[in-house]
Amino acid sequence: MKPFERELKAVLARREPSEDFTARVMAAVAAEASAEPKVAEMPVRRKRPVAFRWAAVGAVAASLTAGFFAIRHQRAERMAAEQAEIQLMESLSLAGSKISLARDRALGAPRGD
Amino acid sequence: MRYGAWILTLVLVAPVWGLTGAKVDVDQPGLEKKADEVVEVNLEGKSLEQGSRLLAIRQGMSGSVKSLLTGLKGIYRRTYRFATGSDGYEEADISSIHERVMGEGWEQVIGVQDKNKREAVSVYSYTEGENVSGVFVVSSDPSEVTLVNIVGDVDLQTLVEAGESFGVPTMQIGSTELEKLKVKLPTKTPPPATQKSKP
């Protein structure tokens, strides 16, 4: 047997555990079981103050109300403009036709009846 | 301080003052009381501006009509309608309007009258310097009296053209046979004339 083989055999030879090995293993298992389980770290969600939430709700409500009134105002303005357009057109047509008529009659235009 | 108050008063009153010359009070309480239906149109300031803008956009009008719209300062119209069979109005109601207008510096440009049918149309103009700053039309027949006051830089020929370009049928506006007599206008502007047809 070569010296290297002898050394290897010595190193890999079976050894008996120490007498307190079992006691140490059991103590370690008991300690592990009694310890609190580790909880995975979760991102913490901070609570916003209540006032902040109400302010946000108020802002949304205010913008919705403002939008509603803006649309209503715009619609009313458009209706008023359309009404003014019709009145303007009718009044100018009326005045124009009366002037035309009076001028025709004054000039002695032939009557249609 | 005293001068400041005067200046402030003048500044505040000036816009209204500028209108009073060519503006006629078209409200006729006497006619309104007797009328079965009253049409009231008051266009000035913002409403006139909005209406003119919309009209110009939609109608796609010629330059002269556009200039008419831009020169307008106010339109005031009253139409008093009287139901058939009602007492109607009296001649005095109409003659008082003419008398009042003539007393306020207005000049009658055209006046036609058909005594048989009790129909009449008068056109007045108000001039400031050399420019016409207002037109007043009084039209009456047994069933309707119409007063139209147009304040602003108004040209009668353009007004007639505008009326035609809007395409509002004449028969819808008037209610009498006078409307049926309407014929095509001569291209040349005729001189002011007054004519009364007698039976």
Entry keywords:
heterodimer; A: 113 residues; 3 helices; 71% helix; 0% strand; B: 199 residues; alpha+beta; 7-stranded mixed sheet; 7 helices; 7 strands; globular; disordered C terminus
Structure, described:
The complex is a heterodimer of chains A (113) and B (199). Chain A is mainly α. Helix content of chain A is 71%, strand content 0%. Chain A is built from 3 helices and no strands. The radius of gyration of chain A is 51 Å and the shape is rod-shaped. The termini of chain A are far apart. Chain B has 7 helices and 7 strands. Chain B is globular, with a radius of gyration of 18 Å. At the A-B interface, helix 3 of A face helix 3, strand 3, strand 4, strand 5 and strand 6 of B.
Mean pLDDT of chain A: 84
Amino-to-carboxy terminus distance of chain A: 150 Å
Radius of gyration of chain B (CA) equals 18 Å
Tally of strands of chain B: 7
Share of helical residues of chain A: over 70%
Low-pLDDT runs of 5+ residues of chain B are 13-19, 170-199
Total beta strand runs of chain A = 0
Largest sheet of chain A: none
Task: Determine the structural class of chain A based on helices, strands and strand pairing.
Answer: mainly alpha
Strand content of chain B: 25-35%
Radius of gyration of chain A: 51 Å
Q: Largest sheet of chain B at a glance?
A: 7 strands, mixed
What share of residues of chain B is helical? 25-40%
Low-pLDDT sequence parts of chain A? none
Biggest β-sheet: strands ordered side by side in the sheet of chain B: 1-2-6-5-4-3-7
